[in-house]
Amino acid sequence: MRILMLIAIFMILSVLVAQIDALLYKTDLWNELKTLLRIDPGSNKWMVYAFLLIGFIYSIVNGVKEKLQKLKKIGSFE
After folding, report:
1. From CA 77, how far away is CA 67, in angstroms rounded?
2. pLDDT below 50 — which residues of the chain?
3. Other CB atoms within 10 A of residue 71 CB
4. CA–CA separation, 2 and 20 (whole Å)
5. Which region holds residue 57: left if phi is over 0, alpha if psi is between -120 and 50, else beta?
């Protein structure tokens, strides 16, 4: 569930920022989304994607840990 929320929040915020840029620069939404999500050499956008990837991996690891702990609890009662 956390992974879904992470992806949903990232997509919603990306579209919102792209929509604002499209209104400001009078271009279309898809062009602004491509500009926003493209990693240019020499820019610091890679940091955003790196921390997003770290958060995504952290969510997966925690989800698996919780699932394993629940399975251990259920197995110990039987």
Report:
1. 16
2. none
3. 10
4. 27
5. alpha
